[in-house]
Sequence to fold (466 residues):
Amino acid sequence: MSAVQQSPIIAEEQIQAVLSASQDVDAAKVREILAKALELKGLNESEVGVLCAVRDHDLREELYHTARKVKEEIYGRRLVLFAPLYVSNMCANECSYCAFRASSKALHRRALTQEEVAHETEILINQGHKRILLVAGESYPKEGFSYVTKCIETIYSVKNGPGEIRRVNANVAPLSVEEFRDLKAAKIGTYQLFQETYHQDTYKSVHLAGRKRDYNWRVTAMDRAMTAGIDDVGIGVLFGLYDWRFEILAIMQHAAHLEKEFGVGCHTISVPRIEPALNAPLSERPPYPVCDDDFRKVVAILRMAVPYTGIIMSTRETPEMRSETFSLGVSQISAGSRTNPGGYTDGEEEYDGSQFSLGDHRTLDEVVRDAAQLGYIPSFCTGCYRKGRTGADFMDLAKPGLIKNYCDVNAMSTFVEYLQNYASAETVALGEQCMANILATMPEARRKRAEGLMSRVRAGERDVYV
Ligand code: SAM
Ligand code: SF4
Fold:
């Protein structure tokens, strides 16, 4: 093993020590930790190490059961929806798992023009989306990084009938503080960036060329984003590159570092698993594949470890796995996604131009219907970001449980808006039934507030939120 350069944020030796100390599972200890998780104050690294080692079937069920309770307590039944918008697949890096890597000649390269970005946005608006995650490879057309801020401006400028995009998040390569300031000025919601793997040797072995080879430039990106005033940041790992137990502990260290330095940890955590990608052999045979059982554990443990941080599940996963993990901890999902630039206009392509193959091919309407049938309220809310409830202000409301007074009612009003303008008749019927069931379980004050907002939407008002 090569000498590991000291990372300013991730203490690898400490993580390995926690993992080796927690190999023998003591059921009493596990139950003690699960009881602590129910206090909703999160868990420390050694507690998480113990949970990672749980294999026994019954204990694992207890772990899932506790995660479900934590999820229900904090997030209730709402599920936030978004769509990715891939604006470009041009890239100067060599990530051995990604179809966009520079040396791949087979990929059809494309950076959308602003007209094309507007057209893709219009399609998403017409489906009923309100949140977009802009995604790009790490190489921009001739105008450089300002291409990205122009795309954001374009997305916000598109209006169609009652529809518009109200929040643009972005997943783009690490930036300088100055560039992050530009991103903030473009009114970005969350800045999202995955470390891929926090394990330095593995990081070096899978990032073969380009700026992305620099581990520290990437791991310090969120510090620069926060320095520039972006206080909602989303971190993540590409599961399959290295041991998932190590990665979970590293995610916790990263979040703790941000909390210590900036007074607020990360807003979301994403849990992508490697999917097959064109000309990316590593994607077909990930070195540390995460099986479905372990993947459920990843979500459940994260839910208990950092209870107030959103967990995002993309359409890389199948509908079955997505539904299962809603109850274990997932709070945001993408729907109807395409991972090729121009994909909403051109339709889904198995590979040509796409970043990876999808596990869930359903339309937004189908995903919404399925969620409603399972008793979840699909939420199109963008209220917190637009009311300035971000960063530490968001956490101040979330931790004492006050955020439900906003999220639950806004979920209902935005869902009514969706049902009125975009849903199929079948989805409307299921959605109305689901809302009636949820209203019946709400505390009276919140229910009245929700009903007030919902009747304004039913009367024709749009974009109603608190
Ligand atoms: N180019 C930027 C970067 O690498 O950070 C941002 C966009 S990149 C397209 C977004 C994410 O896609 C990466 O961070 C990586 O985790 C994920 N990804 C790449 N290849 C993948 C694959 N084969 N399966 C699943 N996710 C993949
Ligand atoms: Fe480029 Fe990002 Fe894909 Fe790496 S993961 S090849 S940086 S688009």
Observations:
- The pocket of S-adenosylmethionine (ligand 1) is lined by residues 97-98, 100, 135, 137-138, 171-173, 193-194, 196, 238, 272, 274-275, 277, 280, 283, 316, 355-356 (CB under 6 Å).
